């Protein structure tokens, strides 16, 4: 659920506190169960692969099919430090060339080749997972960014698979209002303007940095 947000096309929206921001990932049980037990990602999680984090709960639900797709049966809410999240965005290169961000394709190519972080803007999703006319942030971490994510940024990992199923069940029953009431509240994230420029974000419109 988006709360108190003047929604813009490329706007970072998330559940956040003064110190942390929540992102979502979906994994098979063999990765999710050890992560929940340890409070961090451990083997068989592989550091050498790019891992994507998503601040939008509904985009995560679209991607994992309400925790029903093979290999994405367990959905995790990962609370990370805002300082780490902002470091990732400041270091990012866009997945696709955007002339409003880069002076030319050569500059974009250089950025992508040297950055450990990818950012892309995909259509945000509705309660029933249809595309909306504004974008949702996806952040891909590799190399140094994965190491920082695993070793420095994670504050807590919580399973939200049951929540995903509860919302889906209400939708199947035709109770859209009941389903919407269960959604985590997401607000415009107060992203510093200089970081927003790196990822081609619109101004957040958020005035505070406090608790949800």
Automatic annotation (TrEMBL):
The organism's place on the tree of life at top rank: Bacteria
Pfam family of the protein (one): DUF4291
UniProt xrefs under InterPro entries: DUF4291 (IPR025633)
Protein name (record): DUF4291 domain-containing protein
Species of provenance: Verrucosispora sioxanthis
